[in-house]
Amino acid sequence: MSGKPSCIRCGRCLSVCPLFRATGREELAPRSKSMLLEALDRGYGETPQLSAEKLAAMCLGCRRCLDVCPQGVNAPQAVAELRAVHPDFKTWLWKNALRRPQALFPLVGLAPRGMAPKGLDFSGLEPPSEGPWVEIVAASTCFQGRKAVLFPGCAATSLVRRWRTKAENLLAALGVDLLPADFGCCGSPQESGGLLHEAKASRARFAALWRKLGRPLVATICATCRNGLRQTAEELDAEEAQALREAVTPLSAMLMQSQTRLTDAAPERVAFHKPCHETSPADELWLSKSLGDRFFAPDVGECCGFGGALRLAEPDLAAQVGRRCWDSLTATGAQTAVTGCTACVLALSVQAPPTARAFHWLDIFAQSLR
Ligand code: SF4
Ligand code: SF4
Q1: Quick check: 282 and 309 in contact, CB under 8 A?
Q2: pTM of model > 0.90
Q3: For the structural domain made of 260-364, what CATH number should be given?
Q4: Is ligand 1 within 6 A of the CB of residue 5?
Q5: 110, 117, 221: which is closest to 164 by C-alpha?
Q6: Does domain 134-255 have CATH number 3.40.640.10?
Q7: What is d(CA 166, CA 172) in angstroms, rounded to the nearest whole number?
Q8: Can you say whether residue 308 is alpha, beta or left, with left for phi > 0 and alpha for psi between -120 and 50 degrees?
């Protein structure tokens, strides 16, 4: 990893790292990872296998440290590379998956098709649905006739199929010319598991199919998928990369000009959980428009605790991060959280306090137009 930016120990990353915030443990913070990885690079001493495995798992991949680091130190990328080069990491990953399937439920649910070992198929286990709280009374006409595909992501393809169905119905209501496509994974879950080669292959497959379909609009329903697709653009030439960035569109943005009305089932207060990988304001704006003053977006800045391989290595630690996230949400008075990342919904749902609930924004909309 020589030639990469060096950590200057400024400590800015401490305040944003969910692991440090939840535990106060300096050894889990990004700068400690940077120091350890630098030492590994220089070949200082023997690093016991267990330490390398543990270090490789101790990151949620939220990228929050990257946003604040003045040096551009990419701790999550360095940790992902360590996972990829570690000879036994994949074995260790699946061994832990078999040992702790309950702790792992959301992660296994998201394993791209064919990747989860036998006996760990959780398809059919779905978080509860809700609503409808909102009906679309007149769909936007802005996208009528536009060629589009849906990128449903692994969770809506393999685990919570109602999200895919709902998204397809909403696209039909928008009047788009919906092309059939089977994209597979965005690469993000594979990258989280240290499968960098597989992540690259998934992204190349997506780009090839998108190209073959004539570069249509790509409607997305997950912030983490959008992040994965953005990384696909980094592999393309400048013109095509720009076209792909413009094509990848949150479904919420496509619905924005639609007219909606609240139903009697809508709760009084609904909090927005902002996913770590979200870079578009569209989901938040769409929910604000649809739910009016019942909706608010608290600035809690917490992670759901889902990402990386932490749920396998240290499920209690991942749960601690998730609890902190829920504590921050419920401290605002909200018992209901809505978000736009399929992984966050799964993690928040399995960790919700008894009185609290988490939903994907698709869950709160009526299936079709009135
Ligand atoms: S913000 Fe960057 S430079 Fe500062 S301590 Fe963290 S990793 Fe090091
Ligand atoms: S990516 Fe997130 S969990 Fe990992 S070191 Fe950075 S802030 Fe911490």
Answers
A1: no
A2: no
A3: 3.40.50
A4: no
A5: 221
A6: no
A7: 10
A8: left
